[in-house]
Design brief:
By secondary structure, this protein is of the alpha+beta class. The chain has helices at about 45-60, 90-100, 135-145, 155-165, 210-230, 245-260, 275-285, 285-290, 300-315, 320-345, 350-360, 360-395, 405-415, 440-450, and strands at about 1-5, 10-20, 25-30, 40, 40-45, 65-70, 75-85, 110-120, 125-135, 150-155, 175-180, 185-190, 195-205, 240-245, 265-270, 420-425, 430-435, 455-460, 465, 470-480. The chain contains 14 helices and 20 strands. The strands form five sheets. It has a five-stranded mixed beta sheet with strand order 3-2-1-6-10, sandwiched between helices. A five-stranded mixed beta sheet has the order 13-12-11-14-15, with helices on both faces. Strands 16, 17, 18, 19 and 20 form a five-stranded antiparallel beta sheet that branches. The longest helix has about 35 residues, at about 360-395.
Length: about 500
């Protein structure tokens, strides 16, 4: 029995069943972690989260072994890549090079990827690759093990759901959208002509199942259509497959699509993991967790390469073995030569004694000491230089609210809202401003435009307020700048 655990924000979803290419589902459990204990896949309060895990596992009698974590985190990088035919080691090196611009020198990273078919034109393999820091992965393992839960695998949430779509829906449709309504997070997976093209998520501040919530779902699909137009994708979407919507609400969901001009057939996701009608809705409502029961190969698991490196350190490489043989042979020859040298040493002992005496002369010793002092001073200066250089690089990585950043905020607001910058938190990289508009929908359209800008790591906002005297809607927006945003490239 395997267990797939989905972690993103407060809601934790667990799917229990048999893992494989054609998995089976036994049960689904959902619970809310303590407020603020996990945000964007990052565990903020370890003590309360561990206590929650222990209680949750005990109450539901969930197995404590063969656990796979499906993690949505802003710290996990991802890319669509075409992988040439390479050995496992060379493939890993190739993928790491593709993530070179995202890596930090002080962090040790590892990777995972899922296979998404072949590209006949280039004779390469299509993959969806992910990179995460080893410290982050180790933290997940340590936290779950502290709760008595043995983690066997850690898989990217994006990679897992894209792999699920490829293994299931892509076998029926070529161009489609899989939309997952999972609490306040709405995610979309786009495949075009059988090839994965795009993944995005938006945060909804409306209650799940309401008409406003379904409007958010439709609005995210409008953004997807804009992406297709910008990429000049002409293939028509055959089907929208939605997960997280029950039969009673599906008609209202379809009406929201029609109201936003989306004229595409839609259907509710039917994961083929159970014949139990009771579990069908639960399976598609917790689709991220259920996707973790699909075995997408050992390379999809971050711990595959994490552990492989550790094993490599303790296992002798064939090249090293060959060198050991050469060294052993050389050593044998040297022993023979040593015996000859020993005999010669007895003959030339007097010559060596003269050389020894020369090295002990005060003048020579003084020169050696002077050299050692110079080397020590040089090393001290080099250490100071590296320290100064490190501080400089760290400062350069902080974002700044430059004119370019403020122009982006103002340009995206043009025609939608009037903005006023309220504050900037340099340490956290947060810009807070007020957006005012006559129409509340214009504010949300402005938020959607901000989400499309790559200089922002995230965009959060509060609910709107209405100034009844001026009939103006006001909303406070907080943007987290990406690393080094606002700094000119050197």
């Amino acid at each position: 029995m395997s267990v797939s655990v989905y972690l993103s924000n407060q809601m934790v979803q667990v799917a229990v069943g048999t893992r494989g290419k054609k998995p089976s589902l036994t049960n689904v459990y959902t619970a809310n972690a303590p407020d603020g204990s996990i945000i964007n896949g990052i565990i903020m309060d370890q003590e309360s989260f561990i206590s929650f895990l222990k209680q949750f596992w005990a109450e539901k009698k969930i197995p404590q072994k063969d656990i796979y974590l499906i993690v949505n985190s802003s710290k996990i990088a991802d890319k669509n890549l075409n992988l040439p035919k390479l050995s496992e080691k060379k493939a890993a090196e190739f993928i790491m090079r593709e993530f070179a611009e995202m890596q930090r020198e002080e962090e040790e990273n590892t990777l995972a990827y899922i296979t998404l078919g072949k590209d006949p034109a280039t004779k390469t393999t299509r993959i969806y690759a992910n990179m995460a820091t080893k410290d982050q992965l180790k933290e997940y393992k340590d936290i779950f093990e502290a709760a008595g839960i043995s983690v066997r695998g850690i898989i990217s949430g994006e990679g897992s759901i894209i792999g699920y779509a490829f293994m299931t829906i892509a076998q029926k449709y070529k161009t489609f959208v899989l939309q997952i309504a999972n609490g306040n997070l709405v995610s979309n997976v786009l495949f075009v002509d059988g090839v994965h093209k795009y993944f995005n998520s938006i945060r909804s501040f409306n209650i799940a199942g309401t008409n406003d919530y379904f409007d958010d779902c439709a609005r995210s699909l409008n953004n997807l259509e804009q992406f297709m137009r910008s990429e000049k994708i002409e293939s028509a979407i055959e089907q929208i497959v939605v997960a997280g919507v029950d039969d009673n609400s599906f008609t209202r969901y379809q009406q929201s699509l029609a109201d936003h001009g989306i004229d595409v057939p839609s259907s509710i996701s039917k994961p083929m993991v159970t014949n139990d009608a009771r579990l069908q809705y639960e399976a598609q409502a917790a689709l991220f967790a259920v996707s973790g029961l699909y075995d997408m190969g050992k390379e999809s698991n971050f711990l595959t390469h994490f552990d492989a490196k550790e094993k490599k350190d303790s296992t002798m490489d064939p090249d090293i073995k060959r060198r050991v043989v050469i060294i052993g042979t050389t050593l044998a020859v040297m022993l023979v030569l040593f015996a000859i040298s020993l005999a010669m040493r007895l003959v030339r002992q007097g010559v060596y004694k003269d050389a020894y005496d020369y090295n002990k002369k005060p003048a020579i010793v003084l020169q050696v000491n002077s050299y050692d002092d110079a080397v020590e001073k040089r090393d001290a200066l080099l250490a100071k230089y590296k320290s100064i250089n490190y501080v400089s690089e760290s400062i350069d990585s902080y974002p700044v609210p430059s004119e370019a950043v403020l122009n982006v905020i103002e340009e995206t607001a043009r025609g939608y809202a009037d903005i006023e910058i309220l504050s900037f938190d340099a340490e956290a990289g947060l810009i807070t401003f007020s957006a005012k508009a006559d129409n509340v929908n214009d504010i949300y359209k402005y938020i959607d435009k901000l989400l499309a800008e790559d200089i922002f790591m995230s965009v959060e906002h509060t609910g709107y307020t209405l100034d009844e005297r001026e009939v103006i809607y006001d909303i406070h927006v907080t943007c987290t700048l990406a690393e080094a945003a606002g700094r000119e490239e050197k």
